[in-house]
Amino acid sequence: MKSVPTLLVLKALDRESAHGYRIATWINQTSEGALELKEGTLYPLLHNLEQKGLIEGEWQHEAGQREVRIYHLTDRGRRQLRQEEVVWERFAKGVNHVMQQGGVLSDPV
Known about the structure:
The chain is 57% helix and 11% strand. The chain is mostly helical and 109 residues long. It has one domain: Orthogonal Bundle (Arc Repressor Mutant, subunit A). The longest helix is centred in the C-terminal third of the chain and has 26 residues, at 75-100.
């Protein structure tokens, strides 16, 4: 569960390069409001991912607008995303199996 924000940010950047607010908005909209990355979580995470070489950021300035840092996924980040997806699929499958079980707990034999 701890790596879910990392997985979500890497997945967002696998789609397209974006600034932090755009990443957070995409995650929120795509999850139909179920997932929200607040600034206090998102920006330290982006900084950490950049330090690890999983993403790269560059400042961009458009006329009449403030400067924004646009992030994109590196090859290393793309490989990490694929690994994280495998772990997530296994985790989600396990949770789904448990949630679908009925009946009572039995004592170990």
